[in-house]
Amino acid sequence: MYQQVRKRVPAVALHTSVTSKAARVEMLHAEMSAHQWVFRPADGRMTDEMRALADGLVSFAPTEHTDDRLAALLVAVEQVRAHAGRPKVGMFPNPIRLAR
């Protein structure tokens, strides 16, 4: 997965020891408890994908295979953390200029 993602966006492979996986999930739990990450469906109902992600979070065990949805979320969160606070340069390749 890492090789495919890296072809499209800057990505860094994550160390996946039992301790590092557990630490990432604990940090994600703390951030979710502090409302830093909120998954809010438009219609107020959890989708099947959201339910599957929630199940992956609930059933997480560091010594077992990590659910694919949870693993993808952990990779994404780690990338957000790595880039948080960095200047956002070049986000709009074709900027819209407003006439004055």
Task: Give descriptors for this structure.
mainly alpha; single chain
Total of helices: 4
Which ranges are low-confidence, i.e. pLDDT below 50, for 5 or more consecutive residues? none
Q: Provide the residue-averaged pLDDT.
A: 78
Percent range of helical residues:
40-55%
Q: Could you tell me how far the N terminus lies from the C terminus, measured between alpha carbons in angstroms?
A: 47 Å
SSE order, one letter for each helix or strand: HHHH
Category by helix and strand content: mainly alpha
Number of strands: 0
The gyration radius over C-alpha positions equals 17 Å
Roughly what fraction of the amino acids lie in strands? Answer: under 5%
Name the quaternary structure.
single chain
Which of globular, elongated, flat, extended, rod-shaped describes the shape? globular
Largest sheet: none
Structure in words:
The mean pLDDT is 78. 50% of the residues lie in helices and 0% in strands. It contains four helices and no strands. The chain has a domain of 69 residues. With 100 residues, it is mainly alpha-helical.
Task: Summarize this entry quickly.
This protein is mainly alpha-helical.
Topology overview:
Layout: H1 2-8, H2 18-33, H3 48-58, H4 68-83
